[in-house]
Amino acid sequence: MSTTTTVEAPVQQTPSRPRQAAGSDDVRIGLRANLRHIGALARRNMLQIKADPESMFDAVLMPIIFILLFVYVFGGAMFGSGNQEAYVNYLVPGLMAMMGLNIAMAVGTGVNDDFKKGVMDRFRTMPIARSSVLIAKMLVEVGRMLVATTILLIMGFILGLSISTSVWGLLAAVGLSLVFGASLMWIFILLGLTMKTAQAVQGVAMLVLMPLQFGSSIFAKPTTMPGWLQSFTDYNPLSNLADAARGLMTGGPVAHSALMTLAWSVGITAVMAPLAVAKFRKRT
Question: Which intervals of the chain are annotated as region Disordered (predicted)?
Answer without folding.
Answer: 1-23
